[in-house]
Write a structure and sequence with these properties.
Number of domains: 1
Largest sheet: 4 strands, antiparallel
Keywords: Signal
Strand order of the largest sheet: 3-4-7-8
Number of helices: 1
Helix content: 10-25%
Protein name: Kelch repeat-containing protein
Radius of gyration: 14 Å
Pfam family, one: Kelch_1
Strand content: 35-45%
Structural class: mainly beta
Number of strands: 10
Order of helices and strands: HEEEEEEEEEE
Distance between the termini: 40 Å
InterPro entries: Kelch-typ_b-propeller, Kelch_1
Length: about 110
């Protein structure tokens, strides 16, 4: 569980810095290991965890705002693209209730 929480935290930090890097802490020797990179780098993506999978939702890369949903499986060290949101948004907030992810607010690229 410590490794999973550390991975979730580090993914959040890297999405805020517009990166596609993912890392995990290995508790047995207390170091960080590079994981498979996200398909698309971004900043301002929301991160949520449901049933052992980590979801990266929306975000932006410069002037491009994304609606996509990238899912990371830490067991297989793989990413998958899932159904996009109806609107492209960055800097969104998320909540997980009963294993369902809710996405609220965010920046749509038009101030």
């Amino acid at each position: 569980m410590k490794r999973f929480n550390a991975l979730l935290f580090l993914m959040l930090i890297f999405t805020l810095l517009m990166s596609n890097m993912a890392m995990a802490e290995t508790p047995s020797n207390d170091n960080w290991v590079l994981q498979k990179e996200m398909p698309n780098p971004r900043t301002g993506a929301a991160i949520a965890q449901v049933n052992g999978l980590i979801y990266s939702i929306g975000g932006a890369n410069g002037s491009t705002v994304y609606s996509d949903l990238q899912v990371y499986n830490p067991t297989t060290n793989t990413w998958a693209l899932k159904t996009k949101m109806p609107t492209a948004r960055g800097s969104v907030s998320t909540a997980v209730v009963n294993n369902k992810i809710y996405v609220m607010g965010g920046y749509m690229g038009n101030l």
